[in-house]
Specification:
This protein is α+β, with helices and mostly antiparallel strands and 214 residues long. The protein contains 5 helices and 10 strands, in the order ββαββααβββαβαββ. The radius of gyration is 23 Å and the shape is globular.
Length: 214
C-alpha cells in the first residue's frame, strides 16, 4: 500500500480555525521517539542484500554480523555441530571462536563476518556465515559454513564473494584457510573463485586455500 505521494498535504484545520497543521508536522512528534530509541547504526550492520536460491527459489538476505546476532549465531553453530562428523567438530569449534571471540567482540584486529539469513515466522534464522580474522601482515584466515539444507543453493558462493569484496576494500593482502581434502565441494567452489589449493605438510588430509587480493 502506497503511503506517500507527490501531492502536497492539504492539512487539517484546528478547531479554533487559527491555522492549518499539516499531517507531516503532526506525525513528527510520534516518529521522533522511535528514531531516538533506534538510531542509525554506523558500519552498515543493518544494510542487507537479497538473493534467491537457484533451485528452490527461496529468498534470503546477507548482511554484516553485529553484536546483537549472538543468539542467532549460537543456534546456527549448535545445529552444525550436532550434524557434523566427529572429525569436523574441532573445525566447528574454531569457527565459533572466530565468530564470538573476534567478530562479535568487536576487537581491534578488524575481524569481520557476514551472515546469510532466512526470514521465518519466528524471525531471522542464520543459514550460513563467512568471516575472516587478520593474522598479521600475511593476510587473514577465513571461515565459511552453510546449513545442510542450503548447501546446494550457492549460499556459500554468495557469502564468500561478499567476504572477498569486503577484504579487498579493507586492504587485506591475502585470504587463506585450511580444510579437509575430502571436502571436494569447498575445493571446487574456492578454485572457481580464484583460490589456489596447496598441500599441508603436517597433515596429508588437509589442504590450504590461498587467494592473493593485491
Amino acid at each position: 500500500m502506497q503511503v506517500f505521494s507527490n501531492i502536497a498535504p492539504r492539512g487539517v484545520r484546528r478547531q479554533d480555525g487559527s491555522r492549518y497543521a499539516t499531517l507531516t508536522s503532526m506525525q513528527r512528534p510520534a516518529a521522533d521517539p522511535f528514531i531516538a530509541r533506534f538510531p542509525v547504526v554506523s558500519g552498515a550492520w543493518l544494510a542487507r542484500r537479497w538473493y534467491y536460491t537457484p533451485r528452490s527459489r527461496r529468498a534470503y538476505s546477507v548482511r554484516q554480523i553485529s553484536p546483537g546476532d549472538r543468539r542467532l549465531l549460537a543456534e546456527f553453530a549448535l545445529g552444525l555441530t550436532r550434524a557434523a562428523p566427529e572429525r569436523e567438530r574441532a573445525v566447528m569449534q574454531d569457527l565459533t571462536a572466530v565468530l564470538f571471540d573476534r567478530v562479535i567482540s568487536n576487537s581491534a584486529d578488524d575481524a569481520v563476518g557476514f551472515a546469510a539469513l532466512e526470514n521465518t515466522a519466528a524471525g531471522d534464522r542464520v543459514i550460513g556465515v563467512a568471516a575472516y580474522a587478520p593474522t598479521g601482515k600475511e593476510g587473514a584466515e577465513f571461515r565459511v559454513a552453510v546449513a545442510n539444507t542450503y548447501r546446494e543453493e550457492q549460499v556459500g558462493r554468495t557469502l564468500l564473494a561478499t567476504l572477498m569484496r569486503h577484504a579487498r576494500r579493507a586492504g587485506v593482502p591475502r585470504l587463506f584457510a585450511e580444510m579437509f581434502w575430502s571436502n571436494r565441494p569447498m575445493q571446487m567452489l574456492a578454485m572457481s573463485m580464484g583460490f589456489v589449493v596447496e598441500p599441508v605438510a603436517r597433515d596429508r588430509n588437509l589442504r590450504r586455500l590461498v587467494l592473493t587480493l593485491k
